[in-house]
Design brief:
It is a single chain. The chain is mostly helical. About 50% of the residues lie in helices and about 5% in strands. The chain is built from 9 helices and 4 strands, in the order E-E-E-E-H-H-H-H-H-H-H-H-H. The longest helix has about 35 residues, at about 80-115. Keywords: Chlorophyll, Chloroplast, Chromophore, Magnesium, Membrane, Metal-binding, Phosphoprotein, Photosynthesis, Photosystem I, Photosystem II, Plastid, Thylakoid, Transmembrane, Transmembrane helix.
Protein backbone atom coordinates (compact mmCIF):
# COMPACT_ATOMS: atom_id res chain seq x y z
CA UNK A 1 0.00 0.00 0.00
CA UNK A 2 1.48 3.34 -1.05
CA UNK A 3 0.18 6.78 -0.18
CA UNK A 4 1.37 10.01 -1.83
CA UNK A 5 1.05 12.46 1.03
CA UNK A 6 3.42 14.32 3.35
CA UNK A 7 4.41 12.12 6.21
CA UNK A 8 6.20 12.46 9.48
CA UNK A 9 6.87 9.16 11.16
CA UNK A 10 8.77 9.39 14.46
CA UNK A 11 10.36 6.08 15.24
CA UNK A 12 11.60 4.95 18.60
CA UNK A 13 13.35 1.63 18.97
CA UNK A 14 15.87 0.45 21.49
CA UNK A 15 17.87 -2.11 19.52
CA UNK A 16 21.42 -0.83 18.93
CA UNK A 17 21.51 -2.56 15.56
CA UNK A 18 18.57 -0.43 14.53
CA UNK A 19 19.69 2.84 16.07
CA UNK A 20 19.56 4.54 12.72
CA UNK A 21 15.75 4.38 12.90
CA UNK A 22 15.61 6.79 15.84
CA UNK A 23 14.93 9.80 13.63
CA UNK A 24 11.94 11.43 11.95
CA UNK A 25 12.42 11.03 8.22
CA UNK A 26 11.46 13.71 5.72
CA UNK A 27 11.53 14.16 1.97
CA UNK A 28 10.88 17.11 -0.31
CA UNK A 29 9.63 15.17 -3.30
CA UNK A 30 8.01 11.76 -3.91
CA UNK A 31 7.13 11.01 -0.30
CA UNK A 32 6.40 7.30 -0.24
CA UNK A 33 5.00 5.48 2.74
CA UNK A 34 5.92 1.83 2.49
CA UNK A 35 3.81 -0.20 4.80
CA UNK A 36 6.59 -2.37 6.14
CA UNK A 37 5.43 -4.09 9.26
CA UNK A 38 7.98 -4.87 11.94
CA UNK A 39 7.04 -6.57 15.15
CA UNK A 40 8.83 -4.88 18.03
CA UNK A 41 7.41 -5.36 21.52
CA UNK A 42 3.95 -5.92 20.10
CA UNK A 43 3.89 -2.72 18.05
CA UNK A 44 3.55 -2.44 14.29
CA UNK A 45 5.81 0.22 12.77
CA UNK A 46 5.21 1.84 9.41
CA UNK A 47 8.65 2.53 8.04
CA UNK A 48 8.85 5.24 5.36
CA UNK A 49 11.44 5.28 2.62
CA UNK A 50 12.46 8.37 0.69
CA UNK A 51 14.00 8.39 -2.71
CA UNK A 52 14.10 11.71 -4.52
CA UNK A 53 14.30 15.39 -3.61
CA UNK A 54 15.19 16.83 -7.02
CA UNK A 55 13.22 19.11 -9.31
CA UNK A 56 12.71 18.24 -12.97
CA UNK A 57 15.38 20.81 -13.91
CA UNK A 58 17.89 19.05 -11.67
CA UNK A 59 16.93 15.66 -13.11
CA UNK A 60 17.37 17.00 -16.64
CA UNK A 61 20.77 18.39 -15.66
CA UNK A 62 21.83 15.03 -14.27
CA UNK A 63 20.77 13.27 -17.47
CA UNK A 64 22.68 15.75 -19.61
CA UNK A 65 25.75 15.48 -17.38
CA UNK A 66 25.66 11.68 -17.60
CA UNK A 67 25.46 11.85 -21.39
CA UNK A 68 28.69 13.87 -21.68
CA UNK A 69 31.04 10.83 -21.71
CA UNK A 70 29.09 9.12 -24.52
CA UNK A 71 28.85 12.19 -26.74
CA UNK A 72 32.51 13.05 -26.12
CA UNK A 73 33.69 9.56 -27.07
CA UNK A 74 31.57 9.55 -30.23
CA UNK A 75 32.76 13.01 -31.22
CA UNK A 76 36.42 12.06 -30.79
CA UNK A 77 36.00 8.79 -32.71
CA UNK A 78 34.41 10.58 -35.68
CA UNK A 79 36.85 13.50 -35.73
CA UNK A 80 40.18 13.83 -37.58
CA UNK A 81 41.89 13.32 -34.23
CA UNK A 82 40.09 10.00 -33.85
CA UNK A 83 41.10 8.91 -37.34
CA UNK A 84 44.73 9.74 -36.59
CA UNK A 85 44.59 7.81 -33.32
CA UNK A 86 43.09 4.81 -35.11
CA UNK A 87 45.84 4.77 -37.76
CA UNK A 88 48.54 4.74 -35.08
CA UNK A 89 46.64 2.08 -33.18
CA UNK A 90 46.47 -0.16 -36.25
CA UNK A 91 50.27 -0.07 -36.50
CA UNK A 92 50.66 -1.06 -32.85
CA UNK A 93 47.99 -3.72 -33.23
CA UNK A 94 49.71 -5.28 -36.24
CA UNK A 95 52.97 -5.58 -34.31
CA UNK A 96 51.19 -6.97 -31.22
CA UNK A 97 49.25 -9.57 -33.23
CA UNK A 98 52.46 -10.77 -34.88
CA UNK A 99 54.00 -11.35 -31.44
CA UNK A 100 50.85 -12.68 -29.74
CA UNK A 101 51.62 -16.33 -30.51
CA UNK A 102 55.07 -15.96 -28.94
CA UNK A 103 53.63 -14.36 -25.81
CA UNK A 104 50.94 -17.06 -25.54
CA UNK A 105 53.57 -19.78 -25.77
CA UNK A 106 55.57 -18.12 -22.99
CA UNK A 107 52.42 -17.90 -20.85
CA UNK A 108 51.65 -21.59 -21.36
CA UNK A 109 55.21 -22.48 -20.45
CA UNK A 110 55.00 -20.31 -17.33
CA UNK A 111 51.85 -22.16 -16.23
CA UNK A 112 53.51 -25.52 -16.69
CA UNK A 113 56.36 -24.44 -14.45
CA UNK A 114 54.11 -22.72 -11.91
CA UNK A 115 53.18 -24.23 -8.55
CA UNK A 116 49.59 -22.92 -8.91
CA UNK A 117 48.55 -24.57 -12.18
CA UNK A 118 48.21 -28.06 -13.63
CA UNK A 119 47.67 -31.43 -12.00
CA UNK A 120 50.14 -30.84 -9.16
CA UNK A 121 48.53 -27.59 -7.99
CA UNK A 122 47.25 -27.23 -4.38
CA UNK A 123 43.75 -28.58 -3.70
CA UNK A 124 41.13 -27.29 -1.32
CA UNK A 125 41.29 -30.39 0.92
CA UNK A 126 45.07 -30.48 0.98
CA UNK A 127 46.48 -33.97 1.64
CA UNK A 128 43.05 -35.52 2.26
CA UNK A 129 42.16 -38.09 -0.40
CA UNK A 130 39.24 -36.92 -2.53
CA UNK A 131 37.96 -37.50 -6.06
CA UNK A 132 38.24 -34.05 -7.58
CA UNK A 133 36.20 -33.15 -10.70
CA UNK A 134 38.04 -34.17 -13.86
CA UNK A 135 36.87 -31.07 -15.73
CA UNK A 136 38.83 -28.82 -13.35
CA UNK A 137 42.25 -29.22 -14.92
CA UNK A 138 44.06 -26.33 -13.27
CA UNK A 139 44.06 -24.07 -16.30
CA UNK A 140 42.23 -21.22 -14.55
CA UNK A 141 43.88 -19.09 -11.86
CA UNK A 142 42.83 -20.11 -8.36
CA UNK A 143 41.52 -23.54 -9.38
CA UNK A 144 41.64 -25.62 -6.19
CA UNK A 145 39.34 -28.33 -7.55
CA UNK A 146 36.36 -27.02 -5.59
CA UNK A 147 33.00 -27.52 -7.33
CA UNK A 148 30.75 -29.57 -5.05
CA UNK A 149 27.67 -28.35 -6.96
CA UNK A 150 29.01 -29.39 -10.37
CA UNK A 151 28.49 -25.92 -11.86
CA UNK A 152 31.57 -26.14 -14.09
CA UNK A 153 30.80 -29.35 -15.98
CA UNK A 154 29.96 -27.33 -19.08
CA UNK A 155 33.18 -25.63 -20.29
CA UNK A 156 31.23 -22.61 -21.53
CA UNK A 157 29.48 -22.25 -18.18
CA UNK A 158 32.79 -22.67 -16.33
CA UNK A 159 34.37 -19.81 -18.26
CA UNK A 160 31.28 -17.67 -17.70
CA UNK A 161 31.33 -18.30 -13.95
CA UNK A 162 35.03 -17.46 -13.82
CA UNK A 163 34.36 -14.19 -15.64
CA UNK A 164 31.66 -13.34 -13.11
CA UNK A 165 33.81 -14.35 -10.16
CA UNK A 166 36.79 -12.22 -11.08
CA UNK A 167 34.51 -9.28 -11.88
CA UNK A 168 32.83 -9.43 -8.47
CA UNK A 169 36.17 -10.08 -6.77
CA UNK A 170 37.57 -6.84 -8.17
CA UNK A 171 34.49 -4.89 -7.14
CA UNK A 172 34.73 -6.39 -3.64
CA UNK A 173 38.39 -5.38 -3.29
CA UNK A 174 37.67 -1.83 -4.42
CA UNK A 175 34.61 -1.61 -2.16
CA UNK A 176 36.61 -2.88 0.82
CA UNK A 177 39.07 -0.03 0.39
CA UNK A 178 36.18 2.40 0.11
CA UNK A 179 34.63 1.05 3.31
CA UNK A 180 37.82 0.90 5.40
CA UNK A 181 39.82 4.00 4.48
CA UNK A 182 37.19 6.66 5.39
CA UNK A 183 36.61 5.03 8.77
CA UNK A 184 40.35 4.71 9.45
CA UNK A 185 41.02 8.35 8.52
CA UNK A 186 38.13 9.50 10.69
CA UNK A 187 39.25 7.46 13.71
CA UNK A 188 42.81 8.77 13.34
CA UNK A 189 41.53 12.32 13.09
CA UNK A 190 43.35 12.78 9.79
CA UNK A 191 40.23 13.50 7.78
CA UNK A 192 36.61 13.84 8.82
CA UNK A 193 33.74 12.83 6.57
CA UNK A 194 30.05 13.62 6.92
CA UNK A 195 29.53 9.91 7.50
CA UNK A 196 32.63 7.68 7.69
CA UNK A 197 30.81 4.38 8.31
CA UNK A 198 30.03 2.69 5.00
CA UNK A 199 26.48 1.49 5.65
CA UNK A 200 25.34 4.79 7.15
CA UNK A 201 26.11 6.67 3.94
CA UNK A 202 23.00 5.27 2.26
CA UNK A 203 20.96 6.03 5.35
CA UNK A 204 22.23 9.62 5.28
CA UNK A 205 20.79 9.93 1.80
CA UNK A 206 17.46 8.55 3.00
CA UNK A 207 17.43 11.33 5.60
CA UNK A 208 18.09 13.88 2.86
CA UNK A 209 21.63 14.77 3.93
CA UNK A 210 24.01 16.32 1.43
CA UNK A 211 27.24 14.36 0.97
CA UNK A 212 30.44 16.18 0.03
CA UNK A 213 33.10 14.18 -1.78
CA UNK A 214 36.31 13.76 0.26
CA UNK A 215 34.68 15.89 2.95
CA UNK A 216 35.31 19.06 0.91
CA UNK A 217 32.49 21.52 1.49
CA UNK A 218 30.46 22.10 -1.67
CA UNK A 219 32.18 19.36 -3.69
CA UNK A 220 29.25 17.17 -4.65
CA UNK A 221 27.72 16.09 -7.94
CA UNK A 222 24.78 13.85 -7.07
CA UNK A 223 25.58 14.03 -3.36
CA UNK A 224 22.80 16.54 -2.75
CA UNK A 225 20.18 14.42 -4.53
CA UNK A 226 18.00 11.53 -3.44
CA UNK A 227 18.73 7.87 -4.02
CA UNK A 228 16.68 7.70 -7.22
CA UNK A 229 18.81 10.39 -8.87
CA UNK A 230 21.99 8.72 -7.66
CA UNK A 231 20.76 5.37 -9.01
CA UNK A 232 20.00 6.98 -12.38
CA UNK A 233 23.49 8.52 -12.49
CA UNK A 234 25.06 5.20 -11.59
CA UNK A 235 23.08 3.33 -14.25
CA UNK A 236 23.84 5.84 -16.99
CA UNK A 237 27.53 6.11 -16.16
CA UNK A 238 27.89 2.32 -16.07
CA UNK A 239 26.22 1.78 -19.44
CA UNK A 240 29.40 2.70 -21.31
CA UNK A 241 31.85 0.49 -19.37
CA UNK A 242 29.42 -2.43 -19.31
CA UNK A 243 28.78 -2.12 -23.05
CA UNK A 244 32.53 -2.00 -23.67
CA UNK A 245 33.00 -5.09 -21.50
CA UNK A 246 30.25 -6.85 -23.46
CA UNK A 247 31.85 -5.93 -26.80
CA UNK A 248 35.28 -7.12 -25.70
CA UNK A 249 38.75 -5.70 -26.11
CA UNK A 250 37.90 -4.10 -29.48
CA UNK A 251 35.44 -1.66 -27.89
CA UNK A 252 38.04 1.10 -27.40
CA UNK A 253 39.70 0.82 -30.81
CA UNK A 254 37.62 3.70 -32.28
CA UNK A 255 39.50 5.90 -29.76
CA UNK A 256 42.86 4.52 -30.85
CA UNK A 257 43.27 2.32 -27.77
CA UNK A 258 44.39 -1.24 -28.47
CA UNK A 259 44.05 -3.84 -25.72
CA UNK A 260 46.26 -6.86 -26.45
CA UNK A 261 44.77 -9.16 -23.80
CA UNK A 262 41.39 -10.80 -23.29
CA UNK A 263 38.17 -9.73 -21.57
CA UNK A 264 39.46 -10.57 -18.08
CA UNK A 265 43.01 -9.29 -18.54
CA UNK A 266 42.81 -6.59 -21.25
CA UNK A 267 46.32 -5.26 -20.70
CA UNK A 268 47.67 -2.31 -22.62
CA UNK A 269 48.56 1.13 -21.21
CA UNK A 270 45.03 1.61 -19.88
CA UNK A 271 44.76 -1.58 -17.80
CA UNK A 272 48.44 -2.46 -17.38
CA UNK A 273 50.33 0.83 -17.11
CA UNK A 274 53.16 -0.83 -15.16
CA UNK A 275 53.64 -3.51 -17.86
CA UNK A 276 53.29 -6.32 -15.33
CA UNK A 277 52.29 -8.72 -18.10
CA UNK A 278 55.71 -8.42 -19.75
CA UNK A 279 57.02 -11.09 -17.38
CA UNK A 280 54.86 -14.18 -18.11
CA UNK A 281 55.89 -16.09 -14.98
CA UNK A 282 55.20 -13.20 -12.62
CA UNK A 283 51.98 -12.35 -14.45
CA UNK A 284 50.54 -15.85 -14.10
CA UNK A 285 51.31 -15.77 -10.38
CA UNK A 286 49.73 -12.32 -10.04
CA UNK A 287 46.52 -13.72 -11.54
CA UNK A 288 46.37 -16.29 -8.74
CA UNK A 289 47.07 -13.66 -6.08
CA UNK A 290 44.35 -11.44 -7.49
CA UNK A 291 41.60 -14.06 -7.40
CA UNK A 292 42.65 -15.26 -3.93
CA UNK A 293 42.54 -11.75 -2.50
CA UNK A 294 39.29 -11.10 -4.35
CA UNK A 295 37.67 -14.15 -2.76
CA UNK A 296 38.83 -12.97 0.66
CA UNK A 297 37.31 -9.56 -0.08
CA UNK A 298 33.95 -11.11 -1.00
CA UNK A 299 33.93 -13.13 2.23
CA UNK A 300 34.97 -9.99 4.13
CA UNK A 301 31.94 -8.18 2.79
CA UNK A 302 29.71 -10.89 4.17
CA UNK A 303 31.33 -10.12 7.52
CA UNK A 304 30.78 -6.38 7.03
CA UNK A 305 27.06 -7.00 6.46
CA UNK A 306 26.71 -9.18 9.55
CA UNK A 307 28.64 -6.71 11.70
CA UNK A 308 26.50 -3.81 10.55
CA UNK A 309 23.32 -5.74 11.34
CA UNK A 310 24.46 -6.92 14.79
CA UNK A 311 26.45 -3.97 16.12
CA UNK A 312 25.59 -0.99 13.93
CA UNK A 313 29.29 -0.13 13.72
CA UNK A 314 31.88 -0.11 10.97
CA UNK A 315 34.41 -2.94 10.49
CA UNK A 316 37.37 -0.95 11.85
CA UNK A 317 35.57 0.04 15.06
CA UNK A 318 34.41 -3.55 15.50
CA UNK A 319 38.02 -4.74 15.17
CA UNK A 320 39.18 -2.20 17.75
CA UNK A 321 36.42 -3.26 20.14
CA UNK A 322 37.28 -6.93 19.70
CA UNK A 323 40.99 -6.37 20.34
CA UNK A 324 40.25 -4.31 23.45
CA UNK A 325 37.93 -6.97 24.92
CA UNK A 326 37.87 -10.17 22.83
CA UNK A 327 35.88 -12.16 25.40
CA UNK A 328 32.90 -9.82 25.29
CA UNK A 329 33.11 -8.19 21.87
CA UNK A 330 32.74 -11.15 19.53
CA UNK A 331 30.21 -12.83 17.28
CA UNK A 332 28.81 -15.20 19.91
CA UNK A 333 28.27 -12.37 22.37
CA UNK A 334 26.50 -10.31 19.70
CA UNK A 335 24.24 -13.22 18.79
CA UNK A 336 23.34 -13.79 22.45
CA UNK A 337 22.55 -10.10 22.82
CA UNK A 338 20.10 -10.26 19.91
CA UNK A 339 18.04 -13.02 21.53
Amino acid sequence: MVSLHPLVCPLSVSSPSSGFLRHSLWSRCFRFESCVQERRSGFVIKQPSFFCNASWQELAGVLLFSAIPFTTVKAIANSPIGESLQRKMEERKKFAVENSSKFKALSNEARKESFWYGEDRPRWLGPISYEYPSYLTGELPGDYGFDIAGLGKDPVALQKYFNFEILHARWAMLASIGALIPEILDLLGTFHFVEPVWWRVGYSKLKGDTLDYLGIQGLHFAGSQGVIVIAICQALLMVGPEYARYCGTEALEPLGIYLPGDINYPGGPLFDPLNLSNDPEAFEELKVKEIKNGRLAMVAWLGFYVQAALTGKGPVQNLIDHISDPFHNNLLDSLNFMK
